[in-house]
Amino acid sequence: MTLDPDAFRAVLGRFASGVTVVTMCEEGRDHGMTVSAFSSVSLQPPLIMVCIGDDASLRPVVERATSFGVSILAAAQEALSRRFAAHVNRFDGVGFSRGESGVPLLDGALAWLECRVVSRHQAGDHLIVIGEVESAGAADERPLLYYRGGYAQLER
Question: Is the pTM of this model over 0.90?
Answer without folding.
Answer: yes
